[in-house]
Design a protein that fits this description.
This protein is of the alpha+beta class. The chain contains 27 helices and 31 strands. It folds into six domains: 1-29, no CATH class; 70-153; 161-360 and 399-486, Rossmann fold; 363-396, no CATH class; 522-609, no CATH class; 634-780, no CATH class. α11 (288-308) packs antiparallel against α16. The structure holds S-adenosylmethionine (SAM). Residues 60-432 form the SAM-dependent MTase RsmB/NOP-type domain.
Length: 781
């Protein structure tokens, strides 16, 4: 596409009412390659901001136009993550080094030098090219499978920075204000679990919040991959995140204070103009007004976060925008507003290999007619007319002295040409004192200003319909999983702390930070909206000392090492199908919050009802819950097997017991037929095995199975099984092939084993009945 016709549409400010239409042609139908990767207004704006030196600007623009390389992160920090990293280094890198495309060598992936433990990676081949390449199909298939099971997260490099700088520890209460689709939440959860012994649950938790219900559902999908009982997914506008009260320990329980967080991430909705390398259409749609309409919301979210942060706590504010109006302007005015309660942290000694530039201390505001202004006062009434109302003093820098005092240079700007990444902005804040400005009047004035700013934004949105769409721009590669939004929001019927009535405004303790937070930041409940969860059955916490839960825990002899307070379920007609588990900290939080928190989901599924007649227990172990339960299960249910047994199990996911080694058979027979059982392989205990794993496996393998009368069936999700086969047997396998594979083997075992045919057939039926949608065998049938 030549630039002739299209240029007409660029930089036309308010006359260009619909950026989707240029020359009467709908731009959204333009092919990817045809899109012009430039924008005169963008160029003019950023040259004027002096975001880089003049002679560096061409390199910046050139990088902004090129397609991003493929980036990914190995998730977790445990042995399994190390195995995956070793597999990349010792298996895939040599293979890629040997590979060429059209006679040209390929530069293999390399670790991001600033990401700890070589868990962050960059591959110069763009994602689309990787997908299409026959030569690299093995590596692509590896990435896809490991991403599906949660061992790898496809995430833009710069998007990995904010969680690293948040410095999360296991005892922290963490709030991720704008969390969907959740790649940063995943990092926060990993950090929460990182310094906790395997099998133990951290004392802290992560609340992953998003204002958009459908996007919050994407977080549920992430959560299911991460297997943490320490997460709650909620659905609130960040700027109205509710106060949750707990007893104030200093008042002997007579007063309440607001629960505050040790760490808060505000990865706010933004115009996303740092993502042009991925979102090419930003070039044609870019307008400086996008930042103007987002600024008040971004500021409100950050202010709410500041209230909810503990004194001494840390907060990271980030955007994938380069616009100072969404970045330094927000930080400067919020710091100024809170008069010394917050400070910018100097992070120049952290992630030192990450190239960055300091925050801007001066910038200009562009009006719709393309003029640039240094101060609010210069937007004259004649020039702006009615539109002057659309510009607010908060878009502009504070005085030079104040910008110096606030150390705005400590903000971090990341540019694409520095290290082949997207563009990004990060500011790390610390709360050094309770927020103690006289907020009563200020909050009212703020609320009024905010309401009026939001009205203007709404007007603008109805004008052009662009900014709303862009709120969701983020830097990650995560895609919405099909059907994720079918996940329903949970309601809790837990007994909440006695409600003392009244508004949050009038409640709370009366000293320090918390009192101010509660009194001075009015809690504006989210406006009523259509509630997709109304038809859902409520979650209730189950009593471990009675009823069906007691029967389950007794059957599996769950040890007292496991806290029994965290089991919960959805009850329907007095009955339940699945049992979930949350950590004590999550349970406490949910109980404190009562109905205030719009919880979308929480916990890990640990037991699921089976329909097998004669089974010892009406509930089986669920795959995702096994790592959590494992340390608390007696040896009887955990059988240590040899590598050849593991191989038989993975090659034939429903082997006859007689196909396993006599020792393994013996241990399996200690458990009654028709029961869950776990097969474990610890490479460290089998160093002398003649038959070695294909790869240099070091992590303990844990395979949940169903013990039938004459056979054993793997109870794993198809993706997980593919990942395991890939890692343990070194075979790349299409997940649909797993089902076919199983079916063939089932038939074989039934027809070729006459002696066992009767029990095997019976067993086969039994298992078919028992397995639900998530199981491999159902996919086979
Ligand atoms: C930049 S994205 C967040 C990306 C996410 N942190 C990640 O790493 O995957 C911004 C998110 O903010 C959400 N959002 C928009 N307005 C919001 C608000 N008022 N409060 C909270 N979240 C909001 C959007 O739905 C979107 O999911």
């Amino acid at each position: 596409m030549g630039g002739r016709g299209r240029r007409k549409g660029y930089g036309k400010g308010r006359n260009n009412k619909n950026a989707d239409h240029v020359n009467g042609e709908r731009q959204s139908y333009k092919k990817f390659e045809e899109l012009r990767r430039d924008n005169d207004s963008f160029r003019k704006y950023y040259v004027a901001q002096r975001i880089v030196e003049d002679d560096e600007f061409p390199a910046f623009m050139e990088a902004m136009r090129t397609v991003l390389p493929t980036n990914f992160r190995i998730t977790g920090s445990r042995q399994q993550a190390i195995d995956i990293r070793e597999q990349i280094m010792h298996e895939f890198i040599p293979y890629i080094k040997e590979t060429s495309i059209d006679g040209a060598d390929i530069e293999p992936p390399h670790p991001l030098e600033w990401y700890p433990n070589n868990f962050g990676w960059q591959f110069s081949i763009p994602r689309i090219a990787l997908k299409k390449s026959n030569e690299l199909s093995k590596f692509h298939s590896f990435l896809v499978t490991e991403t599906e099971v949660g061992n790898i997260s496809r995430q833009e490099a710069v998007s990995m920075v904010p969680p690293l700088l948040l410095d999360v520890h296991s005892n922290h209460y963490v709030l991720d204000m704008c969390a969907a689709p959740g790649s940063k939440t995943a990092q926060l959860l990993e950090a929460l679990h990182a310094d906790v012994e395997e099998g133990k649950t951290p004392a802290g938790f992560v609340i992953a919040n998003d204002a958009d219900y459908k996007r919050a559902c994407m977080l549920v999908h992430q959560m299911n991959r991460l297997n943490s009982p320490n997460i709650i997914v909620t659905n609130h506008s960040g700027e109205r995140f509710p106060n949750i009260y707990q007893a104030d320990p200093h008042s002997g329980g007579s007063k309440r204070e607001i629960v505050q967080f040790d760490r808060i991430l505000c990865d706010v909705p933004c115009s996303g103009d740092g993502t042009t390398r991925k979102n090419v259409r930003i070039w044609e749609k870019w307008r400086s007004d996008d930042a103007h309409s987002l600024n008040p919301l971004q500021s409100k979210i950050l202010q709410r976060a500041a209230y909810l942060l503990k004194t001494g706590g840390r907060l990271v504010y980030s955007t994938c925008s380069l616009n100072p109006i969404e970045n330094e302007a927000i930080i400067a005015h919020v710091l100024d507003h809170f008069e010394g309660a917050l400070r910018l942290v100097d992070v120049s000694e952290q992630l030192v290999a990450l190239k960055r530039r300091p925050g801007l201390k001066t910038w200009k505001v562009m009006t719709r007619d393309g003029n640039l202004h240094d101060s609010f006062e210069t937007i004259s009434l004649e020039e702006g007319g009615r539109s002057r109302r659309k510009y607010i003093p908060n878009f502009f820098p504070l005085t030079a002295e104040r910008m110096d005092e606030l150390h705005i240079e400590r903000c971090m700007r990341i540019y694409p040409h520095l290290q082949n990444t997207g563009g990004f902005f990060v500011a790390v804040l610390e709360k050094v004192a309770p927020i103690s400005v006289d907020e009563k009047k200020k909050a009212a004035a703020d609320a009024a200003r905010f309401a009026s700013a939001m009205d203007k934004i709404r007007d603008q949105h109805s004008d052009n319909g662009t900014a709303t769409k862009r709120q969701a721009v983020d830097t990650d590669d995560t895609e919405e999983p099909a059907g994720a939004c079918e996940m329903k929001r949970a309601k809790f019927s837990v007994a909440a702390e006695p409600d003392r009535g009244g508004d949050d405004d009038e409640e709370g303790g009366d000293d320090g930070d918390t009192a101010q937070s509660s009194k001075k930041m009015p809690y504006l409940p989210d406006s009523p909206r259509e509630d997709p969860a109304l038809s859902e059955n409520p979650f209730v916490f189950l009593d471990a000392d009675k009823g069906e839960l007691k029967t389950i825990l007794d059957y599996y002899s769950i040890k007292n090492t496991m806290s029994k307070n965290g089991f919960l379920s959805r009850i329907e007609n007095g009955d339940f199908r699945s049992v979930y588990y949350v950590s004590d900290s999550v349970r406490d939080m949910i109980q404190l919050a009562g109905q205030r928190l719009r919880v979308v989901n929480t916990g890990i599924k640990v037991f699921s009802r089976n329909c097998v007649k004669g089974a010892g227990c009406a509930f089986r172990l669920v795959c995702e819950g096994v790592p959590l339960l494992l340390p608390h299960l007696p040896n009887k249910y955990v059988v240590d097997a040899s590598f050849s047994d593991i191989k038989s199990l993975l090659e034939d996911i429903n082997p006859l017991l007689t196909a396993l080694s006599p020792e393994t058979q013996e241990c399996i027979k200690a458990v009654d037929p028709s029961s869950s059982i776990i097969i474990r392989y610890d490479p460290a205990k089998h160093l002398d095995d003649k038959e070695k794993p294909y790869t240099r496996l070091t992590a303990v393998l844990v395979i949940p199975c169903w013990r039938g009368h004459a056979s054993l069936s793997v109870h794993m999700d198809k993706n997980q099984l593919c990942s395991l086969i890939q890692r343990v047997l070194g075979r790349t396998i299409n997940k649909n092939a797993v089902g076919g594979f199983k079916l063939t083997n089932n038939r074989k075992s039934q027809s070729e084993a006459p002696a066992a045919s009767s029990p095997a057939t019976k067993n086969g039926e039994e298992e078919k009945e028992e397995m639900d949608g998530e199981q491999v065998t159902e996919a086979a049938s």
